[in-house]
Amino acid sequence: MLTRLRQDHHNIGMLLGVLEDKAYKLKRNQKVNFSLISDIIEYMQQYTDRCHHPVEDTLYGHYCQQFGNQEDLERLTVEHERLAQANEMLSHSITMVLSDLMVPMPQLIEEIERYVTLQQAHLQYEEQHIFPQIEQKFVESDWRKVETELTPLFIQDPLFSEEGAAEFRALKQYINDETYAEVAP
Ligand SMILES: [Fe+2]
Ligand SMILES: [Fe+2]
Fold it and tell me: What GO CC annotations are associated with the protein (predicted)?
């Protein structure tokens, strides 16, 4: 269970790296493929907001029921809500750019950078504070209990799974082909 969540984090971290690179290019007035940014946000909404975060909420909820730590549970839930809002806001801005509506570039760059920082801080918080707590206290029987409930919550990853969804084909090609990523806008 934690292995899959950590794998998700690794994948998300890579996508955040792509966004960082796009912000860097925009700052230097270089061409950027906004459809890729849009795909990343779409993935974050389709997979992270709808599967990864709910699994974490449920898993940590179980932990707290048994071992109590209401403070962290509240923070986790609030952060997940904030991240979903950040996805919505950035998705809106990128849709405007793709529709040729005027979006001030410095503002957009700042929004992407703030988004990346927020997402990275969240990953770090979970890796350093949430996962270790569960790992320390959960025994075999705890895992068996939560796994029955959590396994159905996992949907197929539309980007990183073997097949992947057709709509993410371009993004998949981009992240799988480093040489392409280097020269592509
Ligand atoms: Fe999370
Ligand atoms: Fe997470």
Answer: plasma membrane
The maximal CA–CA distance of the chain, rounded, in angstroms, is: 56
Residue type, 138: F
* pLDDT at residue 177, as a whole number: 84
120 CA distance to ligand 2 middle (Å): 10
CATH number reported for the structural domain that contains residue 38 in this entry = 1.20.120.520
Residue 19 Cα to ligand 1 middle (Å): 19
Cα of 123 from ligand 2 centre, angstroms: 6
pLDDT of residue 183: 67
180 confidence band (pLDDT: 50, 70, 90) = low
What's the 117 CA to ligand 1 centre distance in angstroms? Answer: 14
Query: What is the number of domains present in the chain?
Result: 1
Q: Is pTM beyond 0.85 here?
A: yes
Q: Tell me how far the alpha carbon of residue 94 lies from the centroid of ligand 2, in angstroms.
A: 24
> Residue 35 sits in which domain range?
2-183
